[in-house]
Design a protein that fits this description.
Layout (H helix, E strand, L loop, with lengths): L2 H4 L15 H28 L4 H9 L18 H12 L3 H22 L5 H21 L3 E2 L18 E5 L2 E8 L10 E8 L11 E7 L5 E4 L14 E10 L3 E3 L3 H8 L8 H19 L15 H26 L7 H29 L10 H9 L9 H13 L8
Parallel strand pairs: 1-4, 2-4
Antiparallel strand pairs: 2-3, 3-7, 4-5, 5-8, 6-7
């Protein structure tokens, strides 16, 4: 199949070369066409105005992609982890903000679906989870509901060092939730906030083992969106603050049973690698831009070809090598996503996260240097790609520094080993 003839862009991962399934190839092509034809023309406006791409989400729902990881038995497409990641990368090469926020939404279904299925629950908890997740899945697949995933709290909770400060106190029929989340993507635009909160025991103790994952209705009394959103990049995510003041959340709002999130964070670590497809897509976009710009094929760029210079050819070669390295490592790691990975697979996941996040901005940097000053006008996408890629290394819970720390320690110490 001549994939390059299907759309203006060949797939990031050729289905034949990477031995993808028919479903993966079809969904990647669908996403590539949708994002290229509709999301890309809107991206500059949403970046300029820091406005949420609401129309992109309508298109995602119409295409069935809001329900990509919802099982077919619940009205979704039934895609697995790797398939989601491949599709997300295709979207990101055209609009990083849409891909990043779509990740937050899809994770609600992935965590409640495939990941929860792999974890231990007793029969009663499993039955209750199946009943409750059907409620959430139906809202998304049938009604197009958007789920966010507010995570960060300006403390060490997001990286798993302390319990979440957002507290859920048991009351009759559910919980009262109080707390604050920062960098909360989709704030003011999601229908439900998939909130991570610590259930407070009667004796008042807080433990990471008591983490709850709750779908809080955006219009619930006590929910407020606060603050301004004027960051370096990813302006279309509209990641303002969320404040919760004695918000009542019913029992059926639980996306995961009590304690299952803690189990997932310990045993299914690739759940935290789902931000990386966005940055892999941005890395591909930086390379694509450079090739088209130097070939004189980039709309809006000055006329003429700039490819004859040996210096520029060498720069493109360096970019291609870096891109291939990141893609290969990333693909291997997302292929290994599973419950209870081996120590080597866990370290490879950290390496894939670090490499992808750092390579995305490195390629954007090289693109700027290689293409020159005219490429930096905001009428062209490279300036936005550079800004959008810059903060990937700061993404919790696996920031670049945390990845380096865990790789270094994991390479030098076996589990439970000390110097005492």
């Amino acid at each position: 199949m001549n994939h390059a003839a299907d759309t203006p862009d060949a797939p990031i991962f050729d289905p034949d070369t990477f031995r993808l399934t028919e479903q993966q190839a079809a969904l990647m092509q669908q996403a590539r066409q949708l994002a290229g034809e509709k999301f890309a023309p809107r991206a500059a406006r949403h970046d300029r105005d820091a406005s949420f791409p609401t129309e992109n989400y309508r298109d995602l729902h119409a295409a069935g992609l809001l329900a990509i990881c919802i099982p077919q038995s619940h009205g979704g497409l039934g895609a697995d982890y790797q398939t989601y990641a491949l599709v997300a990368a295709e979207i990101a090469r055209h609009c990083g903000a849409t891909a990043l926020t779509w990740n937050m939404h899809v994770c609600s279904t992935l965590w409640a679906g495939k990941i929860a299925d792999d974890l231990e629950m007793d029969d009663a908890a499993r039955t209750e989870h199946e009943r409750r997740r059907a409620i959430h899945f139906r809202r998304i697949a049938a009604d197009g509901a958007i789920y966010a995933q507010p995570f960060s709290e300006a403390n060490a909770s997001a990286v798993g060092q302390i319990p979440f400060g957002t507290a859920a106190r048991p009351v009759e029929g559910g919980w009262l939730v109080t707390g604050r989340k920062i960098f909360a993507s989709l704030s003011g635009h999601a229908d439900y906030y998939g909130l991570l909160a610590t259930e407070i025991a009667p004796e008042g103790n807080a433990s990471r083992r008591n983490t709850l994952y709750l779908a809080v209705p955006a219009n619930a009394p006590g929910v407020r969106v606060t603050g301004e959103w004027d960051p370096l990049g990813m302006r279309g995510t509209v990641s303002r603050n969320l404040e919760f003041s004695d918000v009542f959340v019913e029992h059926d709002a639980a996306i995961m049973p009590r304690g299952v999130y803690f189990q997932a964070a310990s045993r299914w670590p690739h759940m935290f690698l789902t931000l990386s497809p966005t940055y892999l897509g941005l890395a591909q976009a930086a390379y694509d831009f450079t090739v088209r710009y130097l070939r004189g094929e980039m709309p809006g760029a000055p006329p003429g070809k700039r490819r004859s210079s040996a210096v520029k050819q060498l720069a493109v070669a360096e970019m291609r090598i870096k891109l291939e390295q990141a893609k290969t490592l990333w693909f291997q790691s997302v292929s290994e996503a599973r419950v209870d990975p081996t120590p080597e697979q866990r370290l490879r996941a950290y390496a894939a996260q670090f490499s992808t996040m750092e390579t995305a901005n490195d390629l954007a940097r090289l693109a700027i240097r290689t293409c020159g000053g005219h490429s930096m006008f905001r009428t062209l996408p490279l300036e936005r790609i550079y800004r959008d890629s810059r903060c990937g290394s700061l993404m919790a819970p696996w920031t670049a520094e945390i990845c380096l720390e865990r790789i270094g320690r994991g390479a030098l110490y076996q589990e439970g080993e000390t110097d005492d």
